[in-house]
Design a protein that fits this description.
By secondary structure, the protein is α/β, with parallel strands linked by helices. 40% of the residues lie in helices and 14% in strands. The protein has 15 helices and 13 strands. An eight-stranded parallel β-barrel has the order 1-2-3-4-5-7-10-11. Strands 6-8-9 form a three-stranded mixed β-sheet. α7 runs parallel beside α9, α13 packs parallel to α14 and α14 packs parallel to α15. It catalyses: Hydrolysis of terminal, non-reducing beta-D-glucosyl residues with release of beta-D-glucose.
Length: 458
């Protein structure tokens, strides 16, 4: 008898990372600055002024990290490709950047691990941001060109491709909240960014199909939005939250339409949106082989006054609601509530909404930041993370039993890493990284996940 949830034969177990969070080598081999280089080097933007200049030094230490993956026993490794390494400064193509990912892919294949590549995990070349970034359609077109280059070089060896990771963060944290790069606080500019990210996704799907790759998908961080009370005002706030967090992506991608609730959410910011063109929905809603979903926690929302009284000055995330605390549950080091059953509900409701239009699902991120400490024996005992993984995998299995076609699960993250605006203060890894020495130490959660995978294989 074990505490491991069971999964069907062929289910894919993996681990995930992202380029800017682990690679380092920010100024090596022709790489140009990304928006995250600029943002993190701007005083006051990140905790302790931390940057990804060195991070986990994965650029030089990738064989050691692949060995950790091999010993973990994963079927697949999800990594992201740094656009500024491939097309620095907007062009021309950098052979040294392509060669790094070619070596990484070959190392993975030699270890018996299937590569899964994400084309955009937030590190837009700064040169493109200087020309308007995701606010302008030209960036989507440059993204397609970059995609074609990478697919031509790696498409014969990488079977699973993800166009975008969490476009909600790119569009709204980056261009509305201002807590992510490029740090803008805008209204229509953020909505234009959201749309152009979707256009970029559609163009990238076309480029990947033309290259003949096996599987194409996108990763969304969908949220389970819950009302603070049953009042009509709070229930209406949930509709607006759901529109901004979920429907702005799922409706165009899975249903080929814009959300019916977008005007009540964004008002005049979305009225007469001139960044939309005829044919965009057909481009965005091309069939996918899978949908990647990143899940961490539910969000509880309540009706709240607009932060800016003047509608013309509102940012895109000022939708008349506020997130409120969820009492009586454990919270992670990110102060995120731990509610595994909400994971089940999110997936089941997604299937109910989209039916056969929902492609097979891969959970492309799931994990928890905890206040890890190194014990006197040199080990990292992280029982809260082990419990989080066990309970969320159990909740995932419940969604599968309810009819959701889930094909794989990637733990976030293989390594402690640069956690965006939180710098190095938050640790999500199942492997501890000493940022001074770059020593890797597998945590108890690494061993638990390894043992669960081994038990799955019998």
């Amino acid at each position: 008898m074990t505490d491991f949830p069971g999964f069907p034969p062929g289910f894919v177990f993996g681990a995930a990372t992202a380029s800017y969070q682990i690679e380092g080598a920010a100024r090596e081999d022709g790489r140009s600055p990304s928006i995250w280089d600029t943002y993190s080097r701007t005083p006051g933007r990140t905790a302790n002024g931390d940057t990804g200049d060195v991070a986990c030094d994965h650029y030089h230490r990738y064989p050691e990290d692949v060995a950790l993956l091999r010993d973990l026993g994963v079927d697949s490794y999800r990594f992201s490709i740094a656009w500024p390494r491939i097309v620095p400064g907007g062009g021309p193509v950098n052979p040294k950047g392509l060669d790094f990912y070619s070596r990484l892919v070959d190392e993975l294949l030699a270890a018996g691990i299937e590569p899964a590549a994400t084309l955009y995990h937030w590190d837009l070349p700064q040169a493109l941001e200087d020309e308007g970034g995701w606010r302008v359609r030209a960036t989507a077109e440059r993204f397609a060109e970059y995609t074609a280059v990478v697919a031509e070089h790696l498409g014969d060896r990488v079977p699973r491709w993800i166009t975008l990771n969490e476009p909600w963060c790119s569009a709204f944290l980056g261009y509305s909240v201002g807590r992510h790069a490029p740090g803008a606080q805008e209204g229509r500019g953020a909505l234009a960014a959201a749309h152009h990210l979707l256009v970029g996704h559609g163009l990238a799907v076309e480029a990947l199909r033309a290259a003949g790759v096996r599987e194409v998908g996108i990763t969304l961080n969908l949220d389970r939005n819950l009302p603070a009370t049953g009042s009509p005002a709070d229930l209406a706030a949930v509709v607006r939250a759901d529109t901004q967090h979920n429907l702005v992506w799922t409706e165009p991608i899975l249903a080929g339409r814009y959300p019916a609730t977008e005007e009540e959410t964004w008002g005049e910011l979305i009225t007469g949106a001139d960044f939309r063109r005829d044919g965009d929905l057909e481009l965005i809603s091309q069939p996918l082989d899978f949908l990647g979903i990143n899940y961490y926690r539910p969000i509880v929302v309540a009706d709240a006054p607009h932060r800016e009284a003047d509608p013309a000055r509102r940012v895109a995330t000022d939708n008349g609601y506020a997130e409120v605390a969820l009492p009586d549950v454990r919270h992670t080091a990110m102060n995120w509530p731990v509610v595994p059953e909400s994971f089940t509900d999110l997936l089941v409701e997604l299937k109910k909404r989209y039916g056969d239009a929902l492609p097979p699902v891969h959970i492309t991120e799931n994990g928890s930041a905890e206040d890890d400490t190194v014990s006197a024996d040199g080990a990292v005992h992280d029982p809260d993370r082990v419990a989080y993984l066990r309970d969320h995998l159990t909740a995932l299995r419940a969604a599968m039993d309810a009819g959701v076609d889930v094909r794989g699960y990637y733990v976030w993250s293989l390594l402690d890493n640069f956690e965006w605006a939180f710098g190095y203060d938050k640790r999500f890894g199942i492997v501890r990284v000493d940022y001074g020495t770059q020593e890797r130490t597998p945590k108890d959660s690494y061993r638990w996940y390894r043992d669960m995978i081994a038990a799955h294989r019998g």
